[in-house]
């Protein structure tokens, strides 16, 4: 079940998304951003964030998965790849959560092969203590503890993505691996 008290409230999220966008606006002054959202998890964060970005921006998406229930499979599946050219672009990957780092590392390396001008990563939540692969994250919304979360785009078996806040999914610790 989803516990009653949000881990991140709508108000906390709103304030933090604006702060991230302000930093991005200042860092990318004079540039154009190719924002690549990692679906499905990033859809809500992606749309809230890009609404606050004032520099010229185009969007593209990757659909990937690595989770079953509440554990990572360690394999990253790309179900749908980007369509816009990446070469020479200032790419900003936008993702819901970084956990082990396996997914983002895979997606980052894959995009680097297409020779972008720059490539940065923006994540909404970071479970730092779970990291298995080192990935440099340029913009982080919130560092969160090692709990399974749902809402604001993140899911448990595709459920709860529509919650406007982030909640802790109350599952026994042993299934979190
Ligand atoms: P990583 O490859 O272990 O870093 O996992 C990244 C992906 O796993 C994220 O993009 C999420 O889709 C998913 N994920 C990791 N932790 C959670 C969680 O607590 N709730 C929902 N999805 C999660
Ligand atoms: Mg994701």
Could you characterize what this model shows?
The protein has helices at residues 10-27, 43-51, 102-112; strands spanning 2-8, 33-39, 57-68, 71-80, 90-98, 118-126, 139-143, 149-150, 166-169. It is globular and about 45 Å long. Residues 172-177 have low confidence and may be disordered. It has a single domain, classed as Rossmann fold (3-Layer(aba) Sandwich), CATH 3.40.50. With 177 residues, the protein is an alpha/beta fold. A 6-stranded mixed β-sheet has the order 4-3-2-5-6-7, sandwiched between helices. Strands 1-9-8 form a 3-stranded antiparallel β-sheet. Helix 2 (43-51) links the parallel strand 2 and strand 3 (57-68). The longest helix is centred in the N-terminal third of the chain and has 18 residues, at 10-27. It contains 3 helices and 9 strands; from the N terminus they run E-H-E-H-E-E-E-H-E-E-E-E.
């Amino acid at each position: 079940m989803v516990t009653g008290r949000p881990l991140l409230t709508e108000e906390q999220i709103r304030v933090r998304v604006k702060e991230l966008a302000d930093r991005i606006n200042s860092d990318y002054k004079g540039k154009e951003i190719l924002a690549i959202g990692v679906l499905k998890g990033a859809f809500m964060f992606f749309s809230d964030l890009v609404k606050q970005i004032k520099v010229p921006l185009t969007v593209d998406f990757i659909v990937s998965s690595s989770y079953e229930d509440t554990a990572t499979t360690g394999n990253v599946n790309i179900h749908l790849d980007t369509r816009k050219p990446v070469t020479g672009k200032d790419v900003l990957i936008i993702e819901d959560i970084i956990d082990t780092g396996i997914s983002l590392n895979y997606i980052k390396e894959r995009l680097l092969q297409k020779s972008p001008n720059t490539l940065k990563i923006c994540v909404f939540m970071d479970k730092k203590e779970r990291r298995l692969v080192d990935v440099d994250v340029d913009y982080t919304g919130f560092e969160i503890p090692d709990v399974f979360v749902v809402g604001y785009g993140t899911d448990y078996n595709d459920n709860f993505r529509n919650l406007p806040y982030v909640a802790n999914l109350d599952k026994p610790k042993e299934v979190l691996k």
